[in-house]
Structure formats: C-alpha cells, structure tokens
Amino acid sequence: MPEIAERDEFCQVEVASEDWFTSAGVMPFWTEKNFRRMLEGMWERPQPKAKPHVIVVDRALEDRLLESSQDVLCPGLHISATDWPIRTAKIVAPSRIDWLTSEILELSRESALNVAGPIDEDTQRAAIRFATLLPSSVPVPEIAADPDGEVSFDWIGNSYNVFSVSVDRNGRLAYAGRFSEGRRVNGVEQLSAVCPPEIVLGIEKAAN
Amino acid sequence: MVSADYTAVGQNPTLARFIDKRHFSIQKLVVKPGSFLPPLDLKTSAFAIDGLAEDQVWWIADNIVAKESQKGTIPARGDILTIAILEARLNIEPDTEIHPRHVNICGWPEEKEQRKAIDLELCAAAILRLR
C-alpha cells in the first residue's frame, strides 16, 4: 500500500510539471503534445456512467495493471512497472483487452448489416467477458463474426494448427481444434469465472 | 454449366465460397475458421465455378453475392473441391433461384461444436483466392 500511495502522489504531482514527460522516455511513442492533452483530458473531463461490460473490462485491467510486477508492453514500447506511475499506466497503456474489446464492438457494428445473424448485445457482452478471461500467456486471437451471430475467437498457428472458440449470447463456448499431427478436438464449455482448461490447452497447442 | 449431380462418380467440380475481410489471412494465405459455417438455416451458400474465367467468377461476387449480402466488395474466396465437402459428410444441393451456378452446402449437424470441427476441415482444404 505505501508503494502505491507514493506512486499516486508522484503521478499527480509530476504529471503537471514539464520535466516528467521527457524523463519518462515515452516521447518516441507519443508526441508530447498529444500525450499531455490526453492526460489532461482524462483528469478534467467528467466520465460518463460506465456500462456493465465496461466495468467488467475495467476490473480486469485494474487487476492486471495493479500488480507491481506488471510491465507495460506494446509494439515499440516497454516500460517497467517500477518506473511508470501506476495510475497513468492504468489509463493510458493500450492493452490486449482494450484491443479485443474494441474489435468486438467494431465487429458488432459490422454485423448489423448481416440480416441473417447480427451480433446482439448479450453476445457482445459474453464475448467481452470471455476475452477478459484469456490468460495473458496465450497469443492474442483473431476475431470474426459467425454467420449465426456468434463471436469467434481464432488462433492460427503454423501448418494450419488452428483452434477456434465461438461464444453465443448465453455464454456457451463451442470450440474446435485441428492440429498438424492429425489430432482433432471439439466440445462445449460454459463461460464462468476462469477460462476452461480445455480451451487454454487448445490455444497453446495451436500456437506452438 | 456444370452438372447438377455433384455426387456422381468422376465429377469433382470446384466450388467457390466468397468471404469477407475477416475470414482470410494475407500473411498466411489461408482461409480462416468460420468461412464455411452456415447461418441459422444451416445452408452454406457457394457457387460452382468450373469452366469460368477469373473475371466471370468475380462478376458473380460483385453482382450476386455482394448484392444479396449487402456487404460491399467481396475481397476473397475459398475454392474447394466437392470431394472435400462430401468427405465431411455434407451434401451439395443446387439452388438455381439465385444463379444457375448457385449451390447450398447442407447436412450440417445441429451441434455448433461439430459444425466448427467440420468447418476447420473445409477451411484447411480450401485454397485462398484473392481478388
């Protein structure tokens, strides 16, 4: 607790000064001007009331980023948790969950044109929840809409090693895998508090 | 015009399944999972393309598929031999109301996970063709 409190204090005091931006070493990734404008906007702008699925995503983000050992990793940027103000990292760092959530929302918009099976809000919520359950150790999936209105998470490895999970509006996870050594799997799981081990195993097998 | 009897001995025409931007990978040059999955009526739409030139195949994409699906330009397709579909224990039924070369891939199981397993086999057997 003392460590986090100190960091919060550091963040609020130092973010307002001119020196912190250059010393943080993030300027090649974001221009100073845009970065400052974004931070100031987050501090000053009243936030709209969060929707339930946003809260789920936010909690997952918080859990991961509040771990003191959690570094911020994204293309071209690696910031150790020890030299990055936690609160700033929580807001600014683009994470895989942010990316997956935005992909699912974009997919829902696209699927509105699909008269046969658009993605409804329940399916969207279930898909976002499934995305938050994925262990950080597995590769980021590719996301697509099934013609029946479900959201598909796909992992495609070499030699068409592939594993795919479809999430429906009730949180049913239908999965199938096809691996290069000739092994095939398929089954059904239900969305719960953790990612089902069969699914984690399938993803790892497809990715290796 | 190909024969309507897709299961006849010696016949192995190619079917084209037109796919959207999220169902193929340019880097890996593969048709992605879900490309052959059917909608709720359990009929996957495809076209018999034997004997057609490339521009004639894409004419079908632009003038039949894009208009039916209202998805805009079709960027790619997966070409698959009918034998791969029959080996997956699916049926091919001509449905010429849309177009003389239009067929439906039918006989999908009720269970979603089994449909996904078959879809993966079909995707692996299909050849990606980019526009």
What does this structure look like?
- The complex is a heterodimer of chains A (208) and B (131).
- With 208 residues, chain A is of the alpha+beta class.
- Chain A has eight helices and seven strands, in the order ααααββαααβββββα.
- Chain A has helices at 2-15, 19-24, 32-44, 52-65, 86-92, 96-111, 121-133, 197-207; strands at 72-74, 77-79, 142-145, 151-156, 162-167, 172-178, 184-190.
- In chain A, the strands form two sheets. In chain A, strands 3-4-5-6-7 form a five-stranded antiparallel beta sheet. Chain A has a two-stranded antiparallel sheet with strand order 1-2.
- In chain A, helix 4 packs parallel to helix 7 (121-133) and helix 6 (96-111) runs antiparallel to helix 7 (121-133).
- Chain A starts with a helix and ends with a helix.
- Chain B has 131 residues and is of the alpha+beta class.
- Chain B has three helices and eight strands, in the order E-E-E-E-H-E-H-E-E-H-E.
- Chain B has helices at residues 54-69, 82-87, 112-125, and strands at 14-19, 24-25, 30-31, 44-48, 76-81, 91-94, 102-106, 127-130.
- In chain B, a hairpin with a 7-residue loop joins strand 6 (91-94) and strand 7 (102-106).
- Chain B is globular.
- Chain A binds chain B through residues 107, 113-117, 142-150, 152, 154, 156, 160, 162, 164, 166, 168, 172, 174-178, 184, 186-188, and chain B through 22-23, 25, 28, 30, 32-34, 37-41, 69-71, 111-114, 116-117, 119-121, 123-124.
